[in-house]
DNA sequence: CAAAATACGTAACATACGATACAGCGCTCC
DNA sequence: GGAGCGCTGTATCGTATGTTACGTATTTTG
């Protein structure tokens, strides 16, 4: 039994030619709004021609476009009247392999933020928004992308942001550039990497303020860190999840940006003009 | 400020003639479904003539009937896509600057997964778990870290996983290695990068299957993609959020790992012994 | 109560929308 | 390498749709 058009589409999308698949994907992406518009608008949004749209709805089993739209509308009406049943993909009697993953991830985030005080975050934001010192970011094997992500954003809104990458010897030598005014953002979840711990220890000796993103069991680097963000990482998977840390990182990026804008950063305008 | 058409109607319903009032009441009764149908159907449902319906929407301030319908659709889209706005009592105690960010992110994830079918994910997992072809990953300015993150995991559980990085000319030349059996995972959210689009186009011409991670507005690469994952990116911040895509990526990594383990990957054991 | 004004529906109209025929192209399979 | 099939877009067509003009009905007002 196929209850919704969305299901129907995902059932058959595999057996569709390229053009119709684009139509399907476009519809799913902003379901179901585009399906309520005219064929012309639909086709334009999907980047195909109108006949392809019509063939698409025909393949779904509808006699004509208006019939397709009516069904869509009825579906919508049913949803609106019982907000409870608003799920496109019904809770799906445990068959789904990803749903528990999502649930666990959402829980992780809520838990992570519950243990983070506004004060703590505000302190970190203040430090990161300080333009006087340099900002270094580094991560472990799986978390280095998070460091990169954060660096990519921070580098735009303030000067002297450096992501430390490549061989250990390379970034170890960068310690020479680090001093009291500077910040070192480290991502390290288990299994904690010795090289990172040693790096953090040395940096700490040089007076660098360390902001540590780690898991709830705390990397040994926590000993040297000025600020510690402990994220939940447990999910029903073979791997730990860095998603909670990722979200904290995004929240910090957003807050720092706001802070620097408030301070009157003409920097961003300058950047705009450079493009 | 009148935010919804429903409010607008209840504001003015007092100053309407009998026929138009019936139209208004009919619309409110099954809001907004009937307004999406044709003038003829609307008039029949309200028991008035079509011109009365048109006069009714004209009185609401719309130039013509299609404009009225578009507005209704936009309103509907806003409702459907941000479940947050449906909650009457926002989590409040709004002192926290990060809380709205978290809420929006959680919503984004729920929405993103709501638009993803198990079938769709299963297809992608099957393709990624296929050890025969090569797997290439690449991302845009801010999303490249996601590609790295995924590559870091996939490279452990299967051979021939390559993250494309560095200068454009470097990874463009890698196209020579790509063929029909291969997969290209692309992360691209707005502003979409031309270089990536061209890259995807060429790869597609070579028969590479493209898995696209993009935002809800769909990168132009969707045209060439075999599979499209549309994540929600809107958050109360100066930046778009990639968190939802990150979580999808993690879910896929987990699923692919499980799949390959089921196939009996002695690879992981081998790796263990190498350490 | 009469006269005017407003409201409403019928019917004709024009437009834009969905539908269809056809040709070009690429792909697959001999 | 050639023949066949399937997919896609262009151009055209018929029609359903929104729109307007006008006459009748109903209400309002002096």
Describe the structure in your own words.
Two copies of one chain form a homodimer. Chain A has 275 residues and is of the alpha/beta class. Chain A has two domains: 81 residues, Winged helix-like DNA-binding domain superfamily/Winged helix DNA-binding domain (Arc Repressor Mutant, subunit A), CATH 1.10.10.10; 176 residues, Rossmann fold (3-Layer(aba) Sandwich). In chain A, 53% of the residues lie in helices and 9% in strands. Chain A contains 13 helices and five strands. Chain A has a five-stranded parallel sheet, sandwiched between helices. In chain A, helix 2 crosses helix 4, helix 8 packs across helix 12 and helix 9 packs parallel to helix 12. The longest helix of chain A is centred in the last third of the chain and has 20 residues. Chain A is elongated, with a radius of gyration of 25 Å. Chains A and B meet through helix 1, helix 2, helix 6, helix 7 and helix 8 of A and helix 6, helix 7, helix 8, helix 9 and helix 12 of B.
Q: Measured on Cα atoms, how large is the radius of gyration of chain A?
A: 25 Å
Biggest interface and its residues per chain? A-B, 73 and 70 residues
Order of helices and strands of chain A: HHHHHHHHEHEHEHEEHH
The dominant shape of chain A is elongated
Total of DSSP H or I helical runs spanning 4+ residues of chain A? 13
Regarding quaternary structure, what we see is: homodimer
Main sheet overview of chain A: 5 strands, parallel
């Amino acid at each position: 039994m196929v209850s919704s058009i969305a299901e129907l589409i995902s059932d058959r999308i595999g057996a569709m030619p390229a053009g119709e698949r684009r139509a399907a994907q476009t519809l799913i992406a902003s379901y179901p709004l585009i399906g309520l518009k005219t064929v012309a608008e639909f086709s334009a949004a999907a980047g195909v021609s109108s006949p392809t749209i019509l063939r698409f709805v025909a393949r779904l089993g509808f006699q004509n476009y208006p019939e397709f739209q009516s069904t869509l509308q009825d579906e919508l009406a049913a949803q609106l009247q019982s907000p409870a049943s608003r799920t496109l993909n019904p809770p799906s009697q445990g068959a789904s392999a990803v749903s528990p993953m999502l649930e666990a991830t959402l829980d992780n985030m809520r838990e992570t933020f519950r243990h983070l005080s506004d004060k703590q975050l505000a302190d970190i934001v203040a430090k990161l928004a300080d333009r006087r010192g340099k900002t270094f970011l580094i991560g472990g094997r799986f978390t280095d992308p998070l460091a990169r992500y954060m660096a990519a954003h921070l580098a735009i809104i303030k000067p002297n942001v450096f992501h430390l990458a490549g061989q250990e010897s390379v970034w170890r030598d960068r310690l020479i550039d680090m001093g009291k005014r500077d910040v070192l953002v480290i991502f390290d979840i288990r299994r904690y990497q010795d090289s990172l711990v040693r790096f953090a220890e040395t940096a700490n000796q040089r007076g660098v303020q360390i902001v540590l993103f780690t898991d709830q069991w705390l990397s040994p680097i926590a000993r040297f860190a000025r600020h510690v963000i402990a994220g939940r990482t447990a999910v029903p998977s073979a791997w730990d999840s860095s998603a909670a840390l990722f979200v904290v990182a995004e929240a910090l990026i957003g807050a720092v940006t706001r802070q620097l804008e408030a301070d009157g950063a003409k920097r961003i305008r300058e950047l705009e003009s450079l493009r």
